[in-house]
Records
---
Amino acid sequence: MDTLYLGERVDTFAGVVPYRGAGWLHLSASLSRCGWSWAYAVVIGTVIGLGLGASKWVAALFEPLANGLRAVPLFAWLPLAIVQLGIGEKPARVLIFIGALWPIVVATSDSVARVPRAQLETACMLGTPRRRLWRRIYLPSALPEIVTGLRLSLILAWTCVIVGELSGTSRGVGAMMNAARESGRTDQIIVGIITFAVVGYLGDRVLRTLVRPVIRWSES
């Protein structure tokens, strides 16, 4: 089955790139897949990390489970994702999400747990309600380390794209490289490697630029 893309007909199966312009189609598919999965990981990972770092009983109950799941290799989730979610887009996004989740959880929980207790007690003495300590104390104090976790998470999400796209997706840089491997196209494999390196570098630079104004106070 062929699809018209930018005036060219491109093969939409198995990641094959026989026509000009299909490479951009695969890149855009991988970027979209990675972006959405990483965004979900940021939200859920931050919430889990805040709970583990700020509450001793939450940490006692769930930290062993979190550490155990964090130790499972991403490839170990691949067969389960395919069996439960089928072949295609859903397992790919779930695998990227799993890879991106744990750096955020660890960075957030560790940084929140290290917030000085004296700082919390002072805020309460000055009239800050406990329900607002998250926004006024925990997040600002932990933000520099959370940003470090976000940077690591983004890079891991992008590297996990190739694992996610082994689940049978027809589009994506990883699917393109897998098809190139089967057909012996070394040139396309090298292009895929360069693409991962360049996009990963640019993504990290963009994220650093966006968050620098928020954590500028910590650099002084």
---
Amino acid sequence: MKKFRIIILGVALMIGMAGIVWASVIGTPHDLASEPCAMCHTPHHASSAYPLWNRTQEDVSYTMYESLSFDMGPANNPPRVPSNLCLTCHNGVLSELVNYPGPCSVTDSQYDLEISGCADIGTDLMNDHPISFDYLNTADLDGNGFPPHELFGGLGRQAIPGSISLTMYPLYGVPGDADWFECATCHSVHDTVDYPGKRDYQVYFLRNDNTGSTMCLDCHVNR
């Protein structure tokens, strides 16, 4: 029995390590400098403990999504973690590193970012999918058929179960308040999922293959 448990543990460890190896920004659009991890994270002097965030930015005001059909609103302003971390780079406003790689007191402009083009979402989020709202399917008054969230991964973590793909789309927050829909609900910043057409007819960092609008219909069931 002991040997059997050791074998099971070894297989589980191998599977876990395979997942860790696949979760990488290397070779993706987030691979931006000679030390790509340092573009977002630092082991020392982080601007916030979670997730050892290495970027800073002056206070930015956002216009959040709102409409008559938005039953789960209003969205939170300013955006919550982790959406506010994504927007540090994707709001089109210059952001700088807190702790630059290399010797102390050295700065390097290659690590400062002011994104332009299609990756620049801007600060007016009225024309983007709503984020930083409390996901409550019972508030759906328009018959979208939103699935109820479920426990996912322990520690009070919640996720939306995809009605088509069965993908678990994670929600965020702290135990007891862990059902907030954020950028990372649909996007995996470390590029953890492989799917057809990535970089060609689909973008990087999706939680699932969106062919046939699968991701959309996973949540907007009746649409």
